[in-house]
């Protein structure tokens, strides 16, 4: 099965007789029908079988569809948050049912809760079927991607798609000036920027990923790839996106090596809120208090285990850098030997750190050692969700290596965060840069919904090893400006 133009075409006006449905449009259609319309329609039909009236059935259909549309507009890629994705899928029909119950109550026609339960269950089942269908069709509706930039960038992007298991996109080649040093990367040269239109028609390109601001090399004619695309490809079913935006939308991070003026235009825009809203602070106080009360027995057991092991202090205090570079003292349950840094050297912590005690390894693996930081949240030094605070000695070196590292100080540091959830512990300078990519993404896309999703997802991965070794992308995606090609 395929979604190429000859197999799925629709009659239309223009320079060609048939316009292809296109993989990107096919993917959106599958999402719309399988994950929103079909579950809502099923709920409406079930409601009609109960009420035997068209009005309540249409109300159920509309409420379910609207709830799915609103709730699934997550600021973060839900494919990277499986637990939160399932929760939202279950939550949307329930919210729709509550809305129906409220509306019909106001109309003096309150339905029984039992009459809406089958509609909710039906929506869940059809949503599961839609998700399974989407996974089956993903390989067939694969968008063909052409990179504007270098073959090295195209090759690395292809590798990242394969590593992440993303089947919705396929890198087929690159556009730019061909030369002797541009070969041997395992990707095909599709032509220069002057040949963009021909590349789309011949290779059925669905998407250009722009990794270069201008076409390099002598005799290239200059001009932005965006200008060339606007001049030659507007009538074709092809779309274009910047490399950093593509990474943000698909992988949930902002590679430092691809940051351009667009990122700064966003964070310097008048509508960008650099300070956390009051609602976030109030939410921190309420949730930190609730979590503290619930986890108090775990905290007590951890403290007792530490005391029984070596009779040493239970709490560990360490200076960290917070919002706007302000230093504060972070609290943890002690997980290492008392003389862990007796030599005065600051070292990265890793999965096989021999400084951790036997009790400490368990505490770190289950994140119980982080619970005292709830006090830091209540004091206002930290927040529940945000970039992890770093030690001043380590951060001074990282700031010299990575020019964007101080951007993390725009926000109050958190107990958990997008980088912590995706990357675990840094373990090295490169690992710290990898986390920085995720922190920059969080700074740009943060919201109350995003925080709730991260907290929810953290609850499901809390007992997974936080020191897991995760593969990072090619180094230049993280730290080198040359990555843009």
Write the layout of secondary structure elements.
Blueprint: E1 9-11, E2 18-20, H1 23-51, H2 54-71, H3 82-106, H4 113-137, E3 143-148, H5 151-163, E4 169-175, E5 188-191, H6 196-203, E6 207-210, H7 225-232, E7 239-242, H8 243-251, H9 261-267, H10 278-310, E8 315-321, E9 327-333, H11 358-366, H12 373-379, E10 383-385, H13 392-401, E11 414-416, H14 418-423, H15 429-445, H16 448-461, H17 475-479
Parallel strand pairs: 3-4, 3-6, 4-5, 6-7, 10-11
Antiparallel strand pairs: 1-2, 8-9
Helix pairs in contact: 1-2, 1-4, 2-3, 3-4, 10-12
Distance between the termini: 35 Å
Count of DSSP strands: 11
- The helix/strand order is EEHHHHEHEEHEHEHHHEEHHEHEHHHH
What is the overall silhouette? flat
Order of strands, main sheet, comes to: 5-4-3-6-7
SS-based class: alpha/beta
Beta-strand content bin? 5-15%
What about the largest sheet?
5 strands, parallel
Range of helix content: 40-55%
| Radius of gyration computed on alpha carbons | 26 Å
**Low-pLDDT ranges:** 1-20, 216-220, 481-485
Describe this structure in words.
A 5-stranded parallel beta sheet has the order 5-4-3-6-7, sandwiched between helices. Strands 1-2 form a two-stranded antiparallel sheet. The chain has a two-stranded antiparallel ribbon with strand order 8-9. The protein is of the alpha/beta class and about 475 residues long. The radius of gyration is 26 Å and the shape is flat. Residues about 1-20, about 215-220 and about 480-485 have low confidence and may be disordered. The relative contact order is 0.09. The protein is about 50% helix and about 10% strand. It has 17 helices and 11 strands. Strand 3 (about 145-150), helix 5 and strand 4 form a beta-alpha-beta unit. Helix 1 runs antiparallel to helix 4 (about 115-135).
